Amino acid sequence: MPASPRELDAPAAASARAGANFALIKYWGKRDVALNLPDVGSISLTLEALHTETTVRFDPTLAADELVLDGEPAPERAPRISTFLDVVRERAGVRAFARVETANNFPTAAGLASSASGFAALTVAAAAALEQDWDERTLSELARIGSGSAARSIFGGFVEMKRGRYRTGSDSVAKPIADARHWPLQVAVAITTRAEKAVGSTEGMQRTAETSPFYRAWVENQENDLAEARDAIANKDFEHLAEVSEGSALAMHGLAMSARPGLLYFNATTMECLHRIRALRADGVPVFFTVDAGPQVKAICESVALPTVRDALRDVDGVLDVVESGLGPGAALYAP
Ligand code: PMV
After folding, report:
1. Which domains does the chain have, with CATH numbers?
2. Which of 28, 245, 246, 282 has the fewest CB atoms inside 10 Å of its own CB, making it the most exposed?
3. What is the mean pLDDT of residues 115-133?
């Protein structure tokens, strides 16, 4: 029998910052929805310039969890945070509601993965506030329960998320492959709309797994893509990483399009950016693209190419803004 939860005598708070991440080898499909266990592994980059800062304060006088997002109360998003905090409270053996104040320095839910940096920052802050010295593997496992891709934002640089085999999910965790200094790639994100995405990733993944005739083939091929990407990263082989990453992004979107009803995350500007990036690479500019469950385009390039890539994307009709970032560190505490 687990011991009954400990009450807090006084409020306990901590603050953490985590970078957004996006995958080069895509995660699409869950083997367990409640625990966010992926059906495929993935490989991602953690970004420096796009991040979430979160302060959590467990307070014995609160009657419920509270959420403040970008300075505004966000009760409609609080249930997801509460469900996640229940998992943290149970592991820590503590009973107290919390006030969570979180802010992104980029638009929330427009395909820039705010849930990844958000749950990674919340996990690290909550663990510190409750004085739990969980290792990074445990933090990654917990962050995954908040959002699958959040497991990766615990780490910086190049990160691999393992599919895992256990039903508990204890082996579905991320681990660092190489830090940002190993290969300081740059990213230019073309913002093609500020609207929130039409179909969220969980619903999109479920629909795809249930209805696409190609889902098994996607899952079976993933190990090949992961192995190729690991090699390309270890050898800093840009051409090879470009090929396997664009292949994974297009396969994910092709798969999503093959669901019933098909999922269309691209808009016309998205497509225009992909052509522009392909044309640059054909001209010898070291750049490639990826796209997540939304219409923004992420262009990954060698640092020398960043000005060319930024200008080319700015020049595409329909591109509202281009946000730049290098690779950044893993989630960490900070003093607000
Ligand atoms: O963690 P989620 O549920 O936001 O899913 C992320 C899915 C993609 O962004 C499309 C791919 C990925 O690997 O990040």
Report:
1. 6-180 (3.30.230.10), 186-326 (3.30.70.890)
2. 282
3. 97
